[in-house]
Amino acid sequence: MSRAYEFSIEITGFKYDRASEVWEAVTEEWPCEDDGSTDDSLYGSSRGSLRGGMTADEMARKITWAAWKANGAYCRVAVGAICLEDPDVYVRPESEYDQLKAEGLMNPDPVKEEEHADGE
After folding, report:
1. How do residues 41-87 score in pLDDT, each as one tens digit?
2. DSSP character at residue 91
3. Would you say 63 and 9 are in contact if contact means Cβ atoms under 8 Å apart?
4. What DSSP state is assigned to residue 105?
5. Positive or negative, the Cα torsion across 43, 19, 79, 27?
6. Which of 8, 58, 72, 88 has the fewest CB atoms nearer than 10 Å to its CB?
C-alpha cells in the first residue's frame, strides 16, 4: 500500500563545499526540486508516495542520514511531512457567520464595496 505525501526539506549548517553532494544525496532518497536554496540553506519540496509500508518518520530518517553521510558531518535537517490522503478540512457553520454578522463584524468595508462597484 502506498500513501501520498508532500515533503519539505530544509538543510542548514552543512559544509559549503559539499552543498551539491548533500542535495544530490537527499534527492536520491526523495526526489524534489530546489525551492530557493541559498548559500546557508538548502530547501526543496515535492509530492510523492511512500511504498512498502514505510512511514514518514522512516523516510525522514533516510533523508537525514543521506545528508549527514554526504556532508561528512552533522548538519541540521528539517523534514516536514503532510499526508495528502487524510487532510484536515475545516468548514465553519453558517450559524457562526450569522452570529458574527449580528455583532457587526461581517459588515463590508464601504471603501472596498465602492472599489468593486467601480470594477476595480
Report:
1. 999 999 999 988 899 999 999 999 999 999 999 999 999 999 998 77
2. -
3. yes
4. T
5. positive
6. 88
